[in-house]
């Protein structure tokens, strides 16, 4: 297991370098000269040239990339063009909020999705099964930002049960977490159902039944543990979708998280902030995938070490 | 007598050569027809395509015509879905918006599929270092969570609907590349490919005439399912103000303008959301049905 973890950690290094390269190259596509932009209107040619030299923009692109990575590794993502504060400082203020939102949503995704999937599988073709699968199909198709607006309309505007926007208390968390987690819950429900149905047809489940074990022991002790393996992968992939989805959810509920920071930065052309925000969110996702792989290995010992 | 027999045999051979393909499509059609839910999905998609084509004929009003006297009107006989903050007829805007959503979906998926297929074919067919390089690039593109890669691209190119198509297209490339590579690898190993190569066929002929037609099923399925994702992503980006710009009747942008009036005129946000959801639902269940009929192995 230890060798597996070390190997997986080493495998993430080229991916992280690749992610940083893609982000760096995308920012090179920005039209216009950054030095001219930074120098502002009316700057002399000499000022622009000296700024270009100072920023290292007159060096070959490969040097610029290596320089960017070396600084990024030390947590230096440059300064925000809007606030002139270090990018990392701004991100670190917003990141905990986004992570809280993502974790609350993943909780909804896993708990709601698995319960619905288990009910569906154990009562195949019943009214409950069909209803759950219809809701799941709808859940996959609803735009999260629309679901969020409708939840605000019904539960905040009409019923006054939850706050319309903001972040800080438990009641602030509920609607955004449902908004962000609903799509994932639908996918997990479908996956748990098909995985459970496959498992309950296995010989060892038939043997457990023949031994006279109680149905809930068969389902939870023998069935669910084995059905969980593919579900873990789906949940892991969902974390990525959730992290990206926070951008929309935070915008709907006016939550000052990392997603909203990135969108605001795009609007104001604060490119160092966009670069830093996208890179940090992607690095978190890469490490999340690593954690999922380790969990997968833990649950399924047969996985090939390579 | 002899030539007749030869002619008969030739006819028989032609039939035999045609039959596997025909049989495959007939079996697919039979299987697909049995899946009522998939048919419903197909009808939903067809319905929206017809709406997009005939939007100018069936729209009750000009989607861009501002009528500030009648702004924020709830649904009525004159405006079946009410009016927006500028007094424009929401139904007419939704009908024209169908064109935008479908165009964005089809163009971005075609763009993503085209590049993804080329990369997947090259990786799967040539293998070795070409495969390694392409698949590492794919891994890197997959390492971006959700729509963040699309956001980064838009931040560089600037907000517009065309840039949304590019961004969503790039976001689709790795999915297609992975699927095509896997399918190409399995077809490449088949004996008849070796036989064709032994007969002197070039790589280009083998890829275009013998591999590509055999990997089409998973590509069609993936493209249909990606259409749903592409439409959702594009609407999301427009919702954030990074895609279609006012006064474009794009569904995501319409929803975005509706959120400011959630208290006084919730219908502005309601109808575009229903339109996006039903179209995406249509593509999802149609794609599921295609997958079950064309390539049941993908179900897992």
TrEMBL record, chain A:
Spans traversing the lipid bilayer: 12-30, 101-120, 132-155, 167-189, 227-253, 273-296
Protein name as it appears in the record: Nickel import system permease protein NikB
Topology in the lipid bilayer: Multi-pass membrane protein
Positions of the ABC transmembrane type-1 domain: 95-296
Matching InterPro entries: BPD_transp_1_N, MetI-like, MetI-like_sf, Opp2B
Main location: membrane
GO cellular component, one term: plasma membrane
GO terms assigned for molecular function: dipeptide transmembrane transporter activity; nickel cation transmembrane transporter activity
Alphabetic keyword roster: Cell membrane, Ion transport, Membrane, Nickel, Nickel transport, Transmembrane, Transmembrane helix, Transport
Family of this protein: Belongs to the binding-protein-dependent transport system permease family. OppBC subfamily.
Subunit structure as annotated in this protein's UniProt entry: The complex is composed of two ATP-binding proteins (NikD and NikE), two transmembrane proteins (NikB and NikC) and a solute-binding protein (NikA).
Compartments reported by the entry: Cell membrane
Record bears the keyword Glycoprotein: no
This protein's record includes keyword Cell membrane: yes
